[in-house]
């Protein structure tokens, strides 16, 4: 029996060494090629190796803490397994597992010396897809350290009167008007349904998935507020609701309308850095076609569309650069933007005021205690400041 225990533990240790070597090979290759980031394939493989290491660490720690390598310790431990909090991830789910144990949560008994029995459920969850992130454009962020209130200055007028001036003549006066704007951080939060406590002890990967879902849900809410928030009650004020943005109407066709938005901001001396469109409007750009006459002086036959007008909304900046701008303007697809509306702007002119970073809490008390479940809560406290609303062009993509 003892030989089997030692061999099984050795196999786990050898597997961990192999996984660590795989990760090291990836990072060594990146350094050798003088790259600063992993490519998509390397990133996926690195994450998979890391998850494997987490699982092996968890099993090794469970092995030692159960006392299976020491018969006396095995008996003294009353056959109770614990959760590894020293794994390579060291994440919130591991700490939560330890916290649940400290609160007197469920503890499962060891009924076999084998650690190679298959799980009753798979430890991974195939998450539903999420939209691309708009929040990556919001690079201007400021921490609130003294309460939830904030104040900033918003430029509303810029009239430059600089001109040649003769000797002894009065200099012209330019007008630059700024107004103080106040705001407050609001709570963005949601709860999970009751989660069986045994997941923290048996299936940490499920908890890692749920942790990610909870945080992503808060970010979804924040992005919707940044774009569509009404500013009424506790809602933030979004780009589509704030006064002073640059309104661009329908110009007869999709390409002309989008290009007129770029023109409007260029005239206002704004350097936009990103477009944001709903997926359906991005598809309209990708699928726009024009008809070529069959021969000089003839119309194209009905039902035979010509070639595509653009090379695609997200496919680089080649043929469509004449409409959407050059390589300095990113193109983002987000369902936070309503269908029929595009936003072009300098996103550094929108600031996030952060009172509390993303936070995850767990509660296994009260009603949860009766049925061995726990509830998760994800929340953050954030405010939005529109430093220069005119730096955003709100574009109408229909003639309605």
From TrEMBL:
Broad class of where this protein is predominantly found: virion
Residue ranges of every copy of the Phage capsid-like C-terminal domain listed in the record: 118-396
Localisation per UniProt entry: Virion
InterPro entries: Phage_capsid, Phage_capsid-like_C
Domain of life of the organism encoding this protein: Bacteria
Bilayer-crossing regions: none
Protein name: Phage capsid-like C-terminal domain-containing protein
Protein source organism: Mycolicibacter heraklionensis
């Amino acid at each position: 029996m003892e030989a089997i225990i030692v061999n099984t533990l050795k196999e786990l240790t050898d597997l961990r060494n192999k996984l660590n070597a795989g990760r090291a090979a990836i990072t060594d290759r990146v350094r050798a090629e003088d790259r600063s980031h992993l490519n998509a394939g390397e990133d996926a493989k690195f994450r998979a190796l890391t998850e494997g290491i987490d699982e092996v660490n968890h099993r090794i720690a469970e092995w030692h803490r159960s006392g299976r390598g020491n018969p006396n310790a095995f008996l003294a431990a009353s056959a109770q397994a614990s959760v590894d909090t020293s794994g390579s991830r060291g994440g919130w789910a591991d700490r939560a597992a330890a916290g649940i144990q400290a609160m007197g949560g469920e503890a499962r008994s060891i009924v076999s010396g084998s650690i190679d029995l298959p799980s009753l459920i798979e430890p991974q969850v195939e998450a539903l897809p999420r939209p691309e992130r708009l929040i990556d454009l919001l690079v201007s962020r400021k921490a609130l350290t003294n309460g939830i209130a904030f104040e900033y200055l918003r430029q509303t007028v810029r009239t430059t009167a600089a001109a040649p001036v003769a000797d002894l003549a009065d200099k012209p006066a330019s007008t630059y008007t700024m107004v103080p704007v106040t705001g407050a951080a609001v709570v963005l939060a949601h709860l999970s349904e009751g989660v069986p406590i045994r997941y923290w002890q048996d299936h940490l990967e499920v908890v890692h998935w749920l942790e990610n879902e909870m945080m992503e849900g808060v970010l979804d809410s924040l992005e919707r507020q940044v774009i569509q928030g009404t500013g009424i009650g506790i809602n933030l004020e979004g780009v589509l609701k704030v006064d002073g943005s640059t309104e661009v109407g329908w110009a007869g066709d999709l390409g002309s309308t989008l290009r007129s938005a770029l023109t409007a901001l260029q005239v206002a001396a704004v350097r936009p850095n990103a477009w944001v469109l709903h997926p359906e409007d991005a598809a309209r750009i990708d699928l726009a076609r024009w008809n070529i006459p069959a021969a000089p002086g003839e119309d194209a036959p009905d039902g035979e569309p010509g070639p595509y007008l653009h090379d695609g909304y997200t496919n680089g900046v080649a043929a469509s650069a004449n409409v959407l701008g050059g390589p300095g303007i990113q193109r983002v697809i987000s369902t936070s933007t309503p269908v029929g509306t595009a936003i072009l702007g300098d996103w550094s002119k929108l600031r996030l005021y952060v009172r509390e970073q993303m936070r995850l809490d767990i509660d296994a008390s009260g009603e949860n205690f009766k049925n061995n479940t726990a509830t998760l809560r994800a929340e953050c406290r954030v405010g939005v400041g529109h430093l220069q609303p005119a730096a955003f062009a709100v574009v109408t993509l229909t003639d309605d």
